[in-house]
Amino acid sequence: MTLEQLQHWVRKRPTLADTLGIELTALTPDYLEGRMPVDGRTHQPMGLLHGGASVALAETLGSIGAATKIDPTKQACVGLEINANHIKGVREGYVVGRATALHVGRSTQVWEIRITHEETGALVCISRITMAVIDLPAAPAKA
């Protein structure tokens, strides 16, 4: 898939990514990148980036990245476990997440997502997600 095809696929229906303003910005054989605004949609009450928003960005990128490694007509990837360490607070601008596959297996994938501040490059959050690769039900035979 190309970046443009992924962007179209993600935008087919309203999602949490739309609500949070997440956009995909780069796709290479080695990583998927996206960014998210730090504003009222993603703030916690103290005016800082909400940790849950960082996790939502990480899961979005890890899930989409995992989907690029399978045949989506035969399989799907679903989140099995995610963790995150919040390193630095951010009040404004954008954060950028880069998802890199650590393991791509037949039944599981493990992705690392590093989230940095777009302007300063400071590490904001590091997350790891484990994806289960499941087979889709076979289409019923036509009579």
From TrEMBL:
<comment type="similarity">
    <text>Belongs to the thioesterase PaaI family.</text>
</comment>
<dbReference type="InterPro" id="IPR006683">
    <property type="entry name" value="Thioestr_dom"/>
</dbReference>
<feature type="domain" description="Thioesterase">
    <location>
        <begin position="46"/>
        <end position="121"/>
    </location>
</feature>
<protein>
    <submittedName>
        <fullName>PaaI family thioesterase</fullName>
    </submittedName>
</protein>
<dbReference type="InterPro" id="IPR003736">
    <property type="entry name" value="PAAI_dom"/>
</dbReference>
<keyword id="KW-0378">Hydrolase</keyword>
<dbReference type="Pfam" id="PF03061">
    <property type="entry name" value="4HBT"/>
</dbReference>
<dbReference type="InterPro" id="IPR029069">
    <property type="entry name" value="HotDog_dom_sf"/>
</dbReference>
